[in-house]
């Protein structure tokens, strides 16, 4: 993809970072050099990680073209999905006239496929279309594509909703394995993978694994100094810790309540209030 490498070079120098330091844990120094001097980057995940390290928005370094427009649209779609407005997000996706399949940038196409799948699934309970989009994203993506991993994880959700728990477990486990194979820093969006998979293991009463996954999701937030889904993860950690620990008299939802209050998550606060009355030994 074509990018504005001069912006990255300028901000890097303002922050007194060498190309080697900027690249550390993300890519090679040669990749940073190509970004700054040739205005190209083959990986959206790498470019996004570099922008985050420099406190730049991804849109600010993309050339003014359809890729930039679609990136901006998908960012808005993601915001809507994070607040459970999946129907509105789906309408926004359907409204674009941009032909994603024409892009050289396969990672952007994978991201579009994931959101088409998740908005069909959670907005309209359309499992047929969502399966198509998720499988296609898995085919196109690679081990460093978080949206391919999210698509595989979402296949687990589809089969869990259909009560095909053995199939669901296959895809939940595959998505966690894919995260472990990433050669770049795990993006914050992977929090959803940890949360969804923790919920599933709690459902099948594997409370130890559910607890461990919730803790991993919380640790990822700590890495990014983020509150992303932290209320839900803290709830899963407390619930599953109680279920796996017979010596505990009641679950400790204090952290979950603090984060849920901060995020105005009234539905989670209602669940916690109910659990505090019923989960007693």
Automatic annotation (TrEMBL):
<dbReference type="GO" id="GO:0003677">
    <property type="term" value="F:DNA binding"/>
</dbReference>
<protein>
    <recommendedName>
        <fullName>HTH cro/C1-type domain-containing protein</fullName>
    </recommendedName>
</protein>
<dbReference type="InterPro" id="IPR001387">
    <property type="entry name" value="Cro/C1-type_HTH"/>
</dbReference>
<dbReference type="Pfam" id="PF01381">
    <property type="entry name" value="HTH_3"/>
</dbReference>
<dbReference type="InterPro" id="IPR011990">
    <property type="entry name" value="TPR-like_helical_dom_sf"/>
</dbReference>
<feature type="domain" description="HTH cro/C1-type">
    <location>
        <begin position="8"/>
        <end position="61"/>
    </location>
</feature>
<dbReference type="InterPro" id="IPR010982">
    <property type="entry name" value="Lambda_DNA-bd_dom_sf"/>
</dbReference>
